[in-house]
Amino acid sequence: MKPNIVFVINYFYPDYASTGQLLTELCLHLQDDFTITVIAAQPGYNTERDADSKRFTSDRLEHIKILRIKLPEVNKRSLMSRLRYTATYFFYANFLLLKQKNVNYIYTISQPPILGGLIGSIGKLFKRAKHIYNIQDFNPEQAEAVGFMKSKTVLKAAKWLDTLNCKYADHIITVGQDMQETLLNRFANKNVTPNTVINNWTDEKEIIPLTKKDIHVKQFLARNGLTGKFIVMYSGNMGLYYDLENLIKITDRFAACKDLVFVFIGEGAVKKQMQQFVEENELKQVLFLPYQPKEELKYSLNAADVHLVVNQKGIKGVSVPSKVYGIMAAGKPIMGVLESGSEAHRLIVESRSGVVTEPRNYEEVVEQIRYLYELNHSELIEFGNRGRTYLEKHLRRDLSLEKYRQLLLSI
């Protein structure tokens, strides 16, 4: 009989927000070896649902049972709205987890921050199951790095609680070597919970290198007035952890490079601030686009000549920008603004797929972008080719999925 595993992961198919797609692919890979139940929020905050619909609904994806929780609508700009959403999820996720029978394993991730791990700790206590804790982001370290949480008392209490979750877990999975170091530091290298590093991934069979001559890439370029341009692209979340509100200010240094355009694709907390800077300075070489449909992603990624992979100072060892995998899959050069020793920095240096400078070193960022802009086209292409080759050897989706499978079967 297959062991029973419950995933409590908030986002899941068909909701690909955050880690939803990765965890959907993981569950599909594991379904022959485990009887899987997933506890998740209704997709995309489900803002169009009936106001009086059921609190819980059930669904299936192949052999996977999905239990969905109806949650209140959330206004991401309102702290109270986010707290209400998170508290509701935490309460009902625990309620559903404790109702499950014959649970052998509980798998949680570090979302919501700290509470994701606490759900696993509570479940382990009452269900006598083994808890696997997948840390995608370390909190409160992430909030501390950007000054979002300033109370030393709250920080200390939050770190104590999440460290307790780590101590009580049966196995911890981090997504970068630098994050494993953070874990070891939390334990002061004493009595550390068994842990493994498994990289996140992209579908390298779906995201493939394409030239600007590809019909779909050409259409993307033409549709957005980018034909014939040298494109420096940032594609992803424009949140608090990337220093984009300051990096946008270097764009006015390239006025003499008439064919160079900065393209920012996505949404996030600092996007309006970035747009305001561009409007106030009447910059003509910056374009903002919304998130692209999933089926268009491989074309938008391949439209760039250079991709930005950036993190705020202090994020080393706290999280890994997963966009690096998609960029390497597309075979495009990377301009990294990353702390030395961070996971993304290591991948770029080892693969020789781009250039890297430290966060807040804005003058060097300008110099490195100018270097890539002036580089011979064949040399620029070679940066991207090396990234794709490295990914195919070390970071393929099937490699990471099988590492998860072998690990879970061994616990």
From TrEMBL:
Protein name: Glycosyltransferase
Domain of life of the source: Bacteria
Transmembrane segments: none
Alphabetic keyword roster: Transferase
Gene Ontology BP annotations: lipopolysaccharide biosynthetic process
Gene Ontology terms, MF aspect: glycosyltransferase activity
Source organism (scientific name): Paenibacillus sacheonensis
Every Glycosyl transferase family domain range: 227-379
Pfam families per UniProt: Glycos_transf_1
SUPFAM superfamilies: UDP-Glycosyltransferase/glycogen phosphorylase
